[in-house]
Request: fold
Amino acid sequence: MSAILAGGMKQSVHWSDRVAHALLVVAGVALAVFLLAPLATILVKSAQDRAGEWVGLLNFADYFRTPALERSIWNSAWISTLVTAITIPLAFIFAYALTRSCMRFKTLLRNVALVPILAPSLLAAISFIFWFGNQGLLKALLGGNQIYGAPGIVISLVFATFPHALMILVTALSLTDARLSEAADALGTSASRKFWTITVPGAKYGLLSAAMVVFTYAISDFGIPKVIGGNFNMLATDIFKLVIGQQDFSKGAVVGIILLVPVAVTYVADRWVQKRQSALLSARSVPYVPRRSPGFDWAMTAYCVAISLLLLAVLLMAVYASFIKLWPYNFSMSLDHYRMGLVEAGMFGAYVNSVTLGFWCATLGAAFIFGVAYLLEKTRGLDTWRGFMRLMAVLPMGVPGMVLGLGYILFFVEASNPLHFIYGSMAILVVNTVVHYYTSSHLTAVTALKQIDNEFEYVSASLKVPFWRTFLRVTVPVCMPSMLDVSRYLFVNAMTTVSAVVFLYSPNTTLASVAIVNLDEAGDIGAAAAMATLIVVTSSFVCLVYYFLQAWLDRRTQSWRNA
Amino acid sequence: MSAEFLELRNIRKEFGSFVALKDVSLGVHKGELICFLGPSGCGKTTLLRIIAGLEVQSAGTIVQAGRDISRLPPMGRDYGIVFQSYALFPNLTVAENVAYGLVNRKMPRVEREARVKELLALVGMPDAGPKFPSQLSGGQQQRVAIARALATSPGLLLLDEPLSALDARVRVRLRGEIRSLQQRVGITTILVTHDQEEALSMADRIVVMKDGNIEQIGTPAEVYGRPATPFVADFVGKTNLLPATRSGSDRVQVGEQRFECPVADELANGAALRLFFRPEDVTVRGVNGATPNSAAAVVEKVEFLGAYSRITFRLNGIDQPLTADLSLNDMAEFHPKPGDTLRVAVPPDRLRVFEAA
Reply:
């Protein structure tokens, strides 16, 4: 009896802690309803027939008996593998140039290389149609081959995934300890031996991580195969066809689960890899400072300029084409696609919707994510529930957008669902987008919070100041730079995403990125290019706004930040 | 009821299978500065965090000012706390930091400002109000942290290694300032430190801890002069500790040397003991053959340490080298060099014996 008591001493809970617990419960339930429930619905739906009767694994058996569908698994697999195999070396050399050479114009080249992030993935597909499509400028170069199908998908995905791989690899390469290289120099090691024995092993985890991100992106992307894929089927486009085209929810759910498996496995592997990486760099490591080496620096500059020009060629083609009166017959410049194709066709509302979506995600979404991260990191009690919530917070990154969107439609379409009323509203788009991009935002917030001493909370408690006061007066101002990062990330992704929301928009809430798909399907590729351009311009503008906001904040707070 | 301001009864703390505190009991008088002293891992910080409610004890009771606070959360207790890292809010000015706990008490603004002014004057920084913490030195930040902790007039002040992050000069100066501040305010204070000099110079009483146990509680003079255990003797100050056996009433034998000293009656003849004396207890002036506990020492090493010199020497028939601290006057008179023989003595009342563990 006394032994049981010895371990079981518990503090009574202060009322302010109860507030924290209540908020945690509400937030956790929200995450469960808007993340777990939709995913669970997919599982249930995959075991039901069209009438809702339980059929077990029959749908899966059916699926594997349909050669056209089964073929998509193979297509998705080899396309994603190929894209990974092309993107990673390209991005690695670029990252190597940025971190290990004395190349000129580093900042400019880096920013150009990151530009694709500001565009919806479809933009690349549209551009490549203008370059190499049936009426493309350089079609002759293909010598009778088609860009539509696998070639177009692969090359567009390489464009879209390049910046994602680059960011991870730059981080990985800048984390290497310069002392290793100095020791190698002292032992008279050759440059190539250093590269293979120090650089590559040091960046090993970064390489794996980048490869997994690219693979996941490629296998989950919907926009690119939809626009440039022609008759080439992949899992993501299959889901769309089955659910929207044939209204076959059960089979759609089956494909969703099949798509979920590789992504989830990759994701779990990536988390495992990242855990190992954290131990790589000690506090005493010395950052690497590259030394001049004219031949190498020039080669690197040439390579990066070439890549940047190619990326710009893709981006600017869409912009250029959006101003062409009638491709390929009349190359005079006009605003027709914007005026007639978008505004007069009633498409401008979609653009406004996208900005609205971005705004709510960047404000309410960022605030929710940051608030939850704070409650998880800095308050006390409710430990089991806390662990459960942490798990939910990192889950969305392992779920492809198409699968999440499918889950939403299956879950909220039911009239019996008390939350059915949000179906078709802006609210469901906001919630879905925030959940879709939850993990990265959450991890950014947690990293920022972990840099603040827990002692702030201890001191506040000793002064009888409830946690929310300290949150608002101290934590928020101190974490503002990271909060702005999260907010910008959500805004840009809300502007560019297609995959999850393609299931969820209603006539009143069409989004700009979804409109591109529809315009392209209607054959109005000029207007599609115009819309894509609008998105890129808006995302760039938003980034600029955040940049100035950050600069203003830095100036205002420099009196107390590391004086 | 007990007269102690803070009473810890049978506090035990386990982290998994590791026992951080084993049945610790302690009373803290009102208005005193008590110091938890011990090497890292002895449980002193854990004990402080339990008093603050930041850790929950596995068993035991804490009573503060007659109120059982064992199960109260930090918000429900009555203390101010200062950490080694200062933990000042970086985005608030010094004045806002100090006022942080006052704002919540709905104190009128004028009154609040007066209180902040008073506190900043108290810690000797009357003009620092509009500055941000990053514009202050470490020592100044720590004073602000103390002012903030005192602002709400708590009954208890907890200081967790408050001086450890500061450089040596500032540390010594701030020691004295904190001590005189504490005496002026009259607040019951617990100071956690691993620095014995800090404990000796600041505390009313010292609690020496080791492996989750209290080894001794006493005034600095008691702990230094009459250590209760060999560990305390060794941890606080410099010490000569020698294996000894009892060889008669008020006599012990070390190797071939015989020492005269008080020995408790319950220790049996022939019992294994340890003999303790401090280097500064060794005398050289006026020592002759008749002086009790005197012997011829062979000097091995002489270290000049400023105000005094430390001599390492050997006594005939004892394997272990011993140390003596000699003042500059002694040095000028005897100027011992390695290899010299010198007659030394230890007064019997300076010798202590412990039961060998």
In short: Chain A touches chain B at residues 5-7, 9-14, 16-17, 380, 453, 455-456, 458-466, 469, 473-474, 477-478, 557, 559-563 (CB under 8 Å).
